[in-house]
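[Backbone geometry]
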Amino acid sequence: MKTLTTVLFATLLGCTFYACKKTGSATLTNTLTDTLSLSGKWTLAQYYSNPGGGGAWLQANDRMNGYMQFDTNGKLQSTVPDIMGNGTSAVYTTYAITDSVTVKFTRTDNSFENFTYSIKSGTLQLIPKGPILCFEGCGFRLTKAGN
């Protein structure tokens, strides 16, 4: 009985270490893949506006246009208007992918904003996740430049 208990404990311990290693590796791989797919220049195609009474995705125009350049080293350049209405998003200078659905933009003063992001069919969608949120909804859709 003591031998069976020892064998079961060793097996359980081995499975635990194996499972932890595999998850960590998959997370790192996903983050690297996401960074590579996010990198490059993206042009604003649409923005979400909801001034009350139902929102809609609107086409970029003279007032709402620009680009975001994501470098693989975490640097960010942008001419897209700030989604919160505080000038341009050029105040964001770096980005980091924090998980499979969140990208963190950091400003020159080290304050930050998290965005939920997804890339589908060549379109990058960014929705503010906090600490500041749009009361009635907001977001950006950008297309990869050159596509």
Notes: The radius of gyration is 21 Å. The chain is about 25% helix and 40% strand.
